[in-house]
Amino acid sequence: MAESAVTLTTPKELERVPLVTNDRKHTWITDKVSSIVEERTPLWWWVAFLPCSLIALIGLFCIGYQISNGVGVWGENKTVGWAWDITNFVFWIGIGHAGTLISAILFLTRQKWRTSINRAAEAMTLFAVVCAGIFPGIHVGRVWMAWFLAPIPNANGIWPNFRSPLLWDVFAVSTYFTVSVLFWYTGLVPDLATLRDRAKSRVAKYLYGIFALGWRGSNRQWRHYEMAYLLLAGLSTPLVLSVHSVVSFDFATSIVPGWHTTIFPPYFVAGAIFGGFAMVLTILLPARLLYPQLDDLVTRQHVDKMSKIILLTGTIVGYAYLTELFMAYYSGNPFEKFTFFSARMGIDNPGWYAWAYYVMMFCNVISPQLFWIKSMRTNYIAVMTVCMFVNVGMWFERFVIIVTSLAQDFLPSSWRHYSPSWVEIWTFVGTFGIFLSLFLLFMRFLPMICMFEVKLVTPEADPHHEPKKEGQH
Amino acid sequence: MAEYRKIYGLGAQFESAAALMKAAEKIRDAGFSKWDVHTPFPVHGMDKAMGLGKSWLSTPVLIGGAIGTLTATLLTFIPSWGIYPMIVHGKPFNWATLPAFFPIMFELTVLFSAFTTVFALLIMNQLPKWYHPVFNWERFSRVTDDGFFIVVEARDAKFSETKTRALLEEVGGSHVTLIHD
Question: A70 to each of A44, A76, A139, A140, how far by Cα in Å?
């Protein structure tokens, strides 16, 4: 069926930029990607892993401290009941979205350049969702009661409120994590088989062998495998859009000025992809620097395309910010107007957190505009700088939404300042330790690049490709 | 044991995806049914070259997804409408509250579909299967690197150790090897 398109006489096509540069062969791809896992642990890995895991331990200590002492050890008060906890939750879950976008949406839209970055991006998704999941779990205070979130028949005969967006969130985030794990593992199986077949030590062969499930690359298997991959991509695409929409419902269905808007779902999804791509680049650019052999797989073309997505989504986010301001003005609602123009922008009334609003505006809207210039999109220092701004800006976006709306809401007598305690700060820093430690472990033990998919985009993989004569194997 | 081992089939290696595809078409035309090609990545068009139809994996997934929707419907309505009605914001708790349950219905549909996809994939591919006769062939380990193989099973009615070997060589296979169970 698909063949019929080929038989048409097509006009002379412009030559595409190859996805794998320098015409690398399949064995070369296998060798270079597997060697990252197979070589002796490099010194830099320990230099990076030890501090990261130490920071992760500090984070875990803070979580333990908070659980044993109660949420009072955080800086929240009766007016500002959500602050860094939910800011961090939304920040991390948003980061995860880029991985799913790369693995699912770019797959459905046949963006073949995704093949060399999807594995790492999906891994990043999982680790970001792990970090995200910590916060709603511990912010409930009595963590041992968190199982009440699940609709389980219990002796008290109590059921959760299925109409609450907070419960939708439980379903959305847990489904998202589970489906991401399934998708990621399905993609890993053929590459685990590669590591199994190359493994020298018995232990490695045994372990990779178990997880490779006895994969033998037979076409009768690939046939179902490709269908499964397509289905999982098709399922993940609406799922990823739903997850951040549901997260935004946590705010949008309330009546707090600054939260109660219909623009939230698309605005949150765009922001999530925006922040997620920045984080993908933040971890891929150093990885590429440390493993120069990957230059032919993760090329400048990839960085260029991801920068374009950052520019696009950053501009959508900027548009959403302006829409919010316009709606606040146009609504004529004094509380909405106060939240946006006074509390956030600081016009006519010094907003307590106006500085955060301008940090957010600069980082998210102004800084990515640099990517209109082509030379900036392929300049790694420029890209890394913008990505750092975006990482900061997206955290501040959630802080602005949550804290400025709550701290100065309807009744001036109940306004309260909020500042984080050391426990909150170190819990947040700790999640970076957890995230980076998990990612470093992933780099060390699993193939960072999806080898079989990269082989698939080489010209030799095309069954109609006429090979140039070369030495036989 | 080593002297008397059952023959699993004959394996042959091919140079490239293109060569493998041409060979597969010929094996298909020769009327074999119990055979397979092994490749490092899915070769597009190979299903047709082998005479296989479209994967029917989507059928169980549709059923799984429908069960997910049904589960979510029951999970939300039984407590809300039946055993534990909760009036919040003065909103309805009977059938009229349906839109408020859409997010959960959607999520469970996706969750059940994804699990069905993975489990149906494993069942249809008969995985995990940590032992398989083809692993006895030393050369076969290249299948996860850059090797392209055809394996014809001995239980195929048309299988003959000499004739099939000749056929595999004729269609361009090299290193034709007898694989034991």
Answer: 39, 12, 9, 9
Residue A20 is which amino acid? V
Residue B87 lies in a domain: yes
What is the CB neighbour count within 10 angstroms for residue A260? Answer: 17
Chain B positions in Cβ-Cβ contact with residue A217 (cut-off 8 Å): 38-41, 143-144
Locus of tokens 């069942």: B123
**B49 closest CA partner among B87, B23, B85, B82:** B23
Q: Does B47 fall in a domain?
A: no
Asked if pLDDT for residue A473 goes beyond 60, the answer is: no
Sheet containing strand B35-38, edge to edge, reads: B35-38, B148-153, B7-14, B174-180
Please, what's the b/e burial string for A325-346 (b: 16 or more CB within 10 A of its CB; e: otherwise)? eeebeeeeeebbbbbbbbbbbb
Structure tokens of A428?
């947040």
* pLDDT for A105 beyond 60: yes
φ, ψ dihedrals at A310, nearest 5°: -60, -40
* Model confidence pLDDT, tens digit, residues A283-295: 999 988 888 888 8
Instruction: Encode pLDDT of A244-254 as tens digits.
Output: 999 999 999 99
Q: Measured between CA atoms, how close is B160 to chain A, in angstroms?
A: 22
Task: Give the residues across from B10 on adjacent strands.
Answer: B152, B178
Alpha helices in chain B (DSSP H): 17-29, 46-50, 58-77, 98-124, 161-170
Complex-level ipTM:
0.92
Apex B117 CA angle, B112 and B119, nearest 5: 95
- Within a domain: residue B136? no
- CA distance, residue B141 to nearest chain A CA (Å): 6
CB contact under 8 A, A219 and B38: yes
Q: If one looks up domain A29-146+162-459 in CATH, what number appears?
A: 1.20.1630.10
> In the numeric block, which tokens belong to residue B87?
């009036």
Expressed as residue numbers, the domain containing B98 is 58-124
The shortest CB-CB distance from B18 to any of A168, A453, A466 is to A466
CATH code of the domain containing B18: 3.30.70
Cα distances from A105 to residues A62, A136, A457, in angstroms, run: 37, 27, 18
Q: Which of B76, B110, B134 sits opposite A162 (nearest CB)?
A: B76
Q: How many CB atoms lie within 10 A of CB B16?
A: 20
Positions of chain B with pLDDT under 70: 1-4
Dist CA B173 CA B20 (whole Å)? 8
- Number of independent structural domains in chain B: 2
Residue B3 vs residues A227, B7, B161: alpha-carbon distances, Å? 42, 11, 17
